[in-house]
Amino acid sequence: MEVVIVADAAAQGELVASAVADLIARKPEALFGVATGSTPLPVYQALAAKVAAGQVDVGRLKVCQLDEYVGLPAGHPESYREVLKREVLAPLGIGDSAFLGPDGGAEDLPGACAAYEQQLADAGGVDLQLLGIGTDGHIGFNEPVSSLASRTRIKTLTERTRVDNARFFNGLDEVPRHVITQGIGTILQARHLVLLATGAGKAEAVAATVEGPVSSMVPASALQLHPHATVVVDEAAAQQLKLSDYYKATFASKPAWQGI
């Protein structure tokens, strides 16, 4: 696993946006997997700035989402599809036709999960998938004890997760109880995984992910099994890493670092 420690979220955003831009230059029709939440926002902002400056052409880029709430009406402002339209598609100038995601409003939810798996396969698979990490080590909505071989499926949100997400709704009662999420096995099929973390609150989860054993209790630790996984963290999120000096030295020795 490649670990990169940067000064702050802005540096993280610029670095990862540059990696995405390099991918697009090599493969204009790439499938870029995106995640919601505040952590990846600097990446999207830095990438949008490159597009606006004419440094990146996203005309053939495809975008796919990691997860989606179940049961929200179409167009609900807090559905992840709508959030990603606002935070990723619109700033990059990408239309809905280039966006892939599961249907959280489908009557046949297991069928919708299988259909999304097929969509990803038909698109040639995800080239680069951004991931955040929960304080308990979850990725997507794969909570602790999720199968490391799991595929896209319906998951019940923990009360802790619902409370965390209540700030986006008019109270806890409005937060959906179920989601569709890519499974860990699905996530591991992406060609390149980039996990982002900032802040001291994520330090314990980052250390368990990078330096602990592979365990279903820490779903993100499955990234250790991937041939091209990169963890990009700020100083605060790196503070519990035992080998932080090694990671810093390794990165410093690669000033022309490419293709994280």
Secondary structure blueprint with pairings:
Elements: E1 2-6, H1 9-26, E2 31-34, H2 41-52, E3 62-65, E4 67-69, H3 80-92, E5 99-100, H4 109-122, E6 128-131, E7 153-156, H5 159-165, E8 178-181, H6 184-187, E9 192-197, H7 203-211, E10 229-234, H8 244-252
Parallel strand pairs: 1-10, 2-3, 2-6, 3-5, 6-9, 9-10
Antiparallel strand pairs: 4-8, 7-8
Structural description of this entry:
The chain is α/β, with parallel strands linked by helices and 260 residues long. It has one domain: Rossmann fold. The protein has eight helices and ten strands. It has a seven-stranded parallel sheet, with helices on both faces. The chain has a three-stranded antiparallel sheet with strand order 4-8-7, with helices on one face. Helix 7 links the parallel strand 9 and strand 10. Helix 1 packs across helix 2 and helix 2 runs parallel beside helix 3. The model has no long low-confidence stretch (mean pLDDT 95).
Can you list the strand order of the major beta sheet?
Answer: 1-10-9-6-2-3-5
CATH topology: Rossmann fold
Specify the biggest β-sheet: 7 strands, parallel
> What string, H for helix and E for strand, traces the elements in order?
EHEHEEHEHEEHEHEHEH
Shape: globular
The helix-and-strand class reads alpha/beta
Total individual domains: 1
SS summary, helix count: 8
- What low-confidence regions span 5 or more consecutive residues with pLDDT below 50? none
> Distance N terminus to C terminus?
11 Å
| Strand portion | 15-25%
Average pLDDT: 95
**The first-level CATH class name:** Alpha Beta
Question: What are the key terms here?
Answer:
260 residues, 7-stranded parallel β-sheet, 3-stranded antiparallel β-sheet, 16% strand, Glucosamine6P_isomerase, EC 3.5.99.6
